[in-house]
Design brief:
15 strands; 4-stranded parallel sheet; elongated; alpha/beta
């Protein structure tokens, strides 16, 4: 029959005679068939990795360990493919721009449109490249033909919910301030907004949101605030599987250090040159923080609801469902945090993509443009007062959305186990001056999850020195002398000192709204205060060095090693019971305690449940141990944590006079009297 192997000379009329396949051709055909089989196998395997049909992030954060945290100083390694990076392999949007200025912010003409890099043009092809008046971009559907203005539509993922269309741009109210912004003329910025805001109909929480679209959470900062942004991603975005977080970086190249979490985080370099940020209250500081209002106005103009969040905030609970429920009965143009005597806090505000929401943020931008020295928060408060009665806003309750003054001082909360707030949705680490002080307070609250490139928490080889403060009647000078001895011994042994809890000594909070109970607490609070209740942490860090000490709560941080090293040793990490209140939440240190004998008069001390106390006696009891004695006693001790019951009255002496002089100089510069708010 025609077509059978035995009829090899048969051919269809009008076609040339086929050539007999060679042996090499047969092998090629077999190779092609094998490749096709592999492709089919990969396709089915990929479908098995896809996210649930409800659009949630279940299983997407496999970098988390058993405690729900991971390494956040660098991008976490995901065990799954980047499920949400449809347009490109990377979520971070990088562009090459000219050194544009923000002259338009002062009412001058904007510079020419900035050209994105070729590597991201595919991502920007579907973005609305808008001027001051953006318009809706048609989407490509089954019945429409793609053209030069149509967006790049990623392929549908089998089993996922359909994508929501892009929102329509908000039309400004008649007579409202100008909404023109150079951001809307930057294609990379517009592309990043649409990418971060891309949502599906079945996402968790979308049913609660007005219109069925989750809001865009936005963070803005320069490289000086980078650790705060990384911590916010770890403690809030990743912890609560929030999917739509946009970081606007004010320093070029900063996006490379932002973890993307498989597409949940989008980062874009803002156009322009902002210069170096300044100290709190300076003109440079005002210029940087006012960029936040510019960014929010541009995003709201594009049609997205915006939750603007400063990096010094932690989500203790997911605030998005709470904010959505607030809008169920009545849609508020603005929901904003109260900031005690400082008015309303612009570091946590939820702006709806409504004409009223756009008019409000445009008014705040207008006020800041006219006065370059005004900061964002006063501009926002002035804008709220000047809005028409039709503008609706809700001040969020302090009990669940506390500012730093309310959270840390009413009642006092210096450590993670003090007066836990079960109803708090967020923690705002403001009402304290200085990034170093903010970071230290986060650490003592167990809300700092940035390990960093030097493995601040997770180092398997670093060894520590811990000492107690067991006397209730000890003076601050005696406590300070014990800390000095610990820092000297730590330097001799190459160990990092874990700070103790100090006594409060009737300390008070100074400054606006300051109270005694905000530092010393009440009769119900234990007489334990942090280092920052008495001394400046910035000066201590600068003089002694970061590797020389750790915060009091270091051993309870979930990033600290939980497994003991080789040998008969205890693990560095101690258990923390978040459900308990007070000291009962803290597991005691299991290591046996050492005591260095001294002739100094010691205060009375409380008993403890340490398994053993071991004594060593220096040759010169009056002047204390020498470096040789310290090395002889403890130099070969391999325990990860060397623990002393106390170091009252101890003065450790370096053998080398130059080493002693160097340490004395560093110590003198390290200790400065300060307040809780670190002014």
């Amino acid at each position: 029959m025609p077509g059978s192997p035995r009829h090899a000379n048969w051919r269809m009329p009008g076609f040339p005679r086929p050539c007999a396949p060679s042996q090499r051709d047969s092998k090629r055909y077999l190779a092609v068939a094998a490749m096709a089989a592999v492709a089919v196998t990969i396709t089915f395997a990929t479908m098995a990795w896809l996210p649930p049909s409800d659009g949630s992030l279940s299983g997407a954060f496999d970098s988390l360990n058993g405690d729900g945290v991971g390494n956040y100083g660098v991008q976490p390694k995901l065990s799954q493919p980047r499920l949400f990076d449809h347009e490109s392999e990377q979520t971070v949007v990088h562009t090459k721009r000219t050194r544009a200025t923000w002259s338009v912010l002062r009412g001058e003409a904007a510079e020419k449109e900035l050209e994105p890099s070729d590597s991201r043009k595919n991502l920007q092809a579907g973005s609305q490249v808008a001027g001051s008046e953006p318009t809706a971009t048609p989407t490509t559907g089954p019945s429409s033909k793609p053209d030069a203005t149509s967006p790049v539509v990623p392929p549908e993922i089998p089993g996922s919910k359909p994508k929501l269309p892009r929102p329509a741009p908000v039309t400004p109210l008649s007579g409202s301030p100008s909404t023109a912004s150079p951001l809307l003329q930057d294609p990379a910025f517009v592309a990043a907004v649409h990418k971060a805001g891309a949502a599906t109909a079945g996402e968790v929480g979308a049913a609660l949101a007005k219109g069925g679209r989750p809001p865009l959470v936005v963070g803005i900062g320069d490289s000086g605030f980078l650790p705060m942004l990384q911590n916010f991603i770890a403690t809030s975005i990743q912890r609560h599987a929030i999917r739509h977080y946009l970081v606007v970086a004010l320093d070029q190249g900063m996006c490379r250090t932002i973890p993307t979490l498989g597409g949940a985080v989008t980062c874009v370099d803002a156009p322009g040159d902002y210069g170096a940020g300044g100290e709190y209250g300076s003109v440079e500081f005002a210029r940087i923080v006012n960029v936040k209002s510019e960014v929010v106005m541009a995003i709201v103009r594009l049609g997205y609801d915006v939750l603007l969040v400063d990096g010094d905030i932690v989500f203790l609970q997911n605030p998005l469902p709470v904010l959505a429920r607030n809008n169920k009965a009545k849609v508020y143009d603005l929901q904003i945090q109260d900031d005690a005597e400082a008015g309303r806090n612009s570091g946590f505000m939820f702006i709806k993509a409504t004409p009223g929401g756009l008019a409000f943020i445009a008014k705040a931008v207008e006020i800041a443009r006219k006065d370059p020295e005004i900061r964002q928060q006063p501009a926002v408060n002035m804008a709220m007062r000047r809005m028409k009665p039709s503008f609706s806003h809700l001040v969020l309750p302090t009990a669940s959305f506390p500012c730093g003054k309310a959270f840390f001082e009413s009642p006092r909360r210096m450590f993670a186990h003090e007066n836990p707030c079960r109803k708090c949705v967020i923690m705002h680490n403001n009402w304290i001056v200085g990034t170093v002080a903010k970071v230290h307070r986060f650490k003592e609250s167990l809300q700092w999850l940035v390990d960093g490139p030097n493995a601040y928490y997770s180092s398997p080889s670093r060894k520590y020195l811990e000492f107690g403060n067991p006397s209730a009647g000890v003076s601050l000078d005696t406590e300070l002398g014990a800390l000095r001895a610990a820092m000297a011994i730590g330097r001799m042994l190459g160990r990092t000192v874990i700070l103790p809890a100090f006594r409060c000594h009737e300390c008070s909070v100074f400054g606006v709204g300051g109270t005694k109970r905000g530092c010393s607490g009440t009769s119900r609070d234990p007489d334990t205060c942090s280092f920052t209740a008495h001394f400046g942490i910035r000066e201590f860090l600068a003089s002694m060095g970061q590797d020389s000490f750790r915060e009091r709560m270091f051993r309870y941080n979930p990033l600290t090693p939980a497994e003991p090293p080789a040998g008969d040793y205890h693990a560095v990490r101690l258990a923390f019971d978040a459900a308990a209140d007070g000291e009962s939440a803290l597991a005691p240190s299991p290591e046996s305690q050492w005591v260095i004998s001294t002739t100094a008069k010691l205060p009375s001390m409380s008993n403890d449940d340490a398994p053993m106390t071991q004594d060593v006696q220096p040759a010169d009891l009056d002047n204390g141990p020498t470096e040789e004695e310290i090395l002889d006693w403890f130099g070969s001790n391999g325990s990860p944590v060397l623990r002393f019951k106390h170091l009252y009255g101890i003065s450790a002496r370096f053998s080398d006079s130059e080493k002693q002089a160097e340490f004395d100089k560093a110590w003198a510069a390290a200790i400065t009297e300060n307040t809780v708010r670190q002014y």
